Amino acid sequence: MSYRTVNESLRLQHVFSLKQRRHNLNSKVTAAPSHLHDCPFQRITNRFVDGLGNVVFDSFEMYGHSRVIGDCIAKEKGCPKIVDRGCYRMAHTPNSPVLSYTRTGDTGPKVILIMGFGMRGSAWKPQIDGLGSSCQLVSFDNRGVGESDAIDEDMSMLDIAKDASRILDALDWHSDVHVVGVSMGGMVAQELLLYQPERFASLSLIATHAGGKTSWLPPAKGVVRFLATQFSSDKNRQKTLARLLYPKAFLSTCNQDDLRARMKLQIGKPASRSTLRRQLRAIRNHDTRSRLPTISQPTLVVKPELDILVHPKHSDRLHRELSQVSLLSIPDAGHGVTYQSADLLNERLLNHFQSAEP
What we know:
There is one protein chain. This protein is of the alpha/beta class and about 350 residues long. It has 2 domains: about 1-95, no CATH class; about 95-358, Alpha/Beta hydrolase fold, catalytic domain (Rossmann fold). It is about 40% helix and about 15% strand. It is built from 13 helices and 11 strands. The chain has helices at about 20-25, 65-75, 125-130, 155-170, 185-195, 220-230, 235-245, 250-255, 255-265, 275-285, 315-320, 335-340, 340-355; strands at about 45-50, 55-60, 80-85, 90, 100-105, 110-115, 135-140, 175-180, 200-205, 300-305, 325-330. The strands form 2 sheets. The protein has an 8-stranded mixed sheet with strand order 4-5-7-6-8-9-10-11, sandwiched between helices. α3 (about 125-130) links the parallel β6 and β7. The N and C termini lie far apart (about 45 Å). About 45% of the residues are buried. Residues about 1-90 have low confidence and may be disordered.
């Protein structure tokens, strides 16, 4: 039996339409060409297998072209899962709605990272860089964001949590998983663990809340700056987002080139207004308060004390309501704590994962 594969001549600088991508699936490839092995935008190899574990297709994968594999090969061969190897991999779930996800690391605790409002999974870069050598990490684009399929109807936090569950299914991660969520991603993480508690070893909640009538409203300063990010021009969006996420003292002392790169990464290809409206409705309707006491997994709550988007008092409430819980309070950090305090956060996360491992 023969299978169409990705042509060796694909180059990173080209942007293909889906029709062009299908046209290029015409020659056998079982490993990445040698001249691409050191390319920072591709990391070897994906193996597609069928439901019996038989190898269906081997390929290399390149950043920016993973839809060639995800859309054309997986759908045509009906592959239910991807077993991938290497140090950094992008892939897509084989079934609709398609979700784009990234794997990093081959050993250590299994960790799913869930990003917040309107942000791509790549915004977890400080954690991917810091924890990738010690953990098996997966991050992903929520539906309607980045390379994942669009949202075509309103979604609840539970719906988004079920998307995350599909990614874990694709990876065959059915137990002992550590779930980490920031901001809206922390709300999704709560629902995910409540939905499938048997699947998870620990929970980490960063700059988030348990919901309720007015919990979704930021402090007054945060409301003003949040609106500024939504209605500012493309030219000013990086600046307004930075002022929302980071305290003034940090902005005045951090490396400005690094900050610009971070802002560019976080904004990337902006989510549509429709996606943002639907995510905001999900945030407004989020409420796990009555169910929090049922969570028995060890939980780390991270409280950035200068957060102007999610009031720090919500971290204190989580700390009070959860049972096996520890609180990491960071006095000088804003809502963008995953970047601002990456070293401290990564250290505590790793300790948390390791202490909760079975």
